[in-house]
Amino acid sequence: MPSVALAEPQRLEGSRQPRILWEPPFDPSDLGAEAVGLAADVGLVLDPWEADFLAGSLRERAGRWAAFEVAGMVSRQNGKGAILEAREIAGLFLLDEQLILHSAHEYKTAAEGFRRLLGLVENCDMLRRRVRQVRTSHGEEGLELLNGARLRFIARSTGSGRGFTGDCVILDEAQNLPDAAVDALMPTMSARPNPQLWYTFTAPDKDLAPCGHIARVRRRAVKGGDRGLYYAEWSINPHVVECSLACTEHDDPADPRSWARANPGLNIRISETHVGREMASMSASGFARERLGVGNWPVEAGAGWQVIAEEQWTAREDRLSQVLDPVAVAMDATPFREWGSIAVAGRRADGLLHVEVVEHRPRTSWMVPWLLDRIEQLKPCAVVIDGASEAGSLIAPLEAANIEVVKPTFREMAQACGQLVEAVTDSGTLRHLGQVELAVALAGAQKRPLGDSWAWSRRDSSVDISPLVASTLALWGHATRAHIKPETLPPPDIF
């Protein structure tokens, strides 16, 4: 029997195409290709995606840059630094820019960029001969050419960059970019005839560093229509809790194909094996942010209280409100189990509805013991948990303790959200204690589509909404199960 040659499995490589791309109108030009070619001539051979980005940033319209602002988000070790080096070489030796400022949020990052760029220049006779001076003093790193053109590397501050008139300003590590730094640097470009401002960054986390400015840049790109912005983002769109196993609209963080979408350098500069090790060692939220480009973005200024108006919520506050038996109990947790919430809901003596967050703590290991210790006191008419959420892991130990858990369907989840909003905004039948954690959750909460209706969006909301989701589910649980229990017992003495 003749042998059959088996085809080698196709090697998975990073995506050349960014998930989010916005390009302004431009005229045909060879300038980008010239910049890529110059980089190759000095020993800096760009990967295809790097060449695409550099060429896209250098397009022109009516003799000026098509994009005044250039922004690129990609995870670490993919080759972002090579693009900056190629842009700086082009600015000095091809574009005749007189001053280029390269800034980073820390001195050591800016200094490392200088060392890489200096190595390229010193190893190329064609470039080295055009250098007049190299500055290596701490905080003064940079190059000056024979024609007077300069490249400076600086650490960001509210004062750095003042007094300079930059043709190109590069804000590296822009996931940590205070508004004050931009306010200091932006005016330095106003006197130049054709300036360009660059932002390069990894996925930001609003809880770790200021990122309001870069979030506004991204919103402009997603919205489209900005004629002065070039934006490219390599990231994934992770699954939501309602996704089925057959979902193709969202990405699985554990799937190597997702790694390739978010990392154009996968199996070129970053090995698939190492990414697998990162996933095993890092926290789920850290892996999503640092390797998959899933940012924790700040909410747009003025965009709070989008579902329920603050004045409507405040009008339903009653700090003396008390709930009668029977109560429904619900549990919820944040997407990565950083926080857990338990809420109760029921009716008051006057017949109005009452919701209350009874516990809100870090992590989730405390939640099952908390309820087991109080189940005889509470005697809830329902214990509600969304089985598709992170709190779904609590269902099995509760059921093992002979506690029935009500698990709402997607349709019932939508009904629960609508019920809470209606009780606040239309009928006005809901009362609450004015708890800060519930108000914060509502202020930052966002909707997500759920069939023909909607539900609370954990991913798009700017805050921990587990207190809100738990309250929503508790209110629904009481509405659907309270008729099973008599409502004549005195208020439970537990809060």
Query: Looking at CATH, which topology of the largest domain would you report?
Result: Rossmann fold
Secondary-structure-based class equals alpha/beta
The major pleated sheet works out as: 9 strands, mixed
Low-confidence stretches: 485-490
Number of discrete helical segments:
16
What share of the residues does DSSP label as strand, in percent? Answer: 15-25%
Trace the largest sheet across and list its strands.
Answer: 1-11-4-10-9-5-8-7-6
Could you say what the CATH architecture of the largest domain is? 3-Layer(aba) Sandwich
- The CATH class of the largest domain is identified as Alpha Beta
How many domains? The number is 2
The total beta strand count reads 18
What would you call the shape? Answer: elongated
Explain what this protein looks like in three dimensions.
Residues 485-490 have low confidence and may be disordered. The protein is built from 16 helices and 18 strands. Helix 3 packs across helix 4 and helix 14 crosses helix 16. It starts with 19 loop residues before the first strand and ends in a 14-residue tail after the last helix. The chain has 495 residues and is α/β, with parallel strands linked by helices.
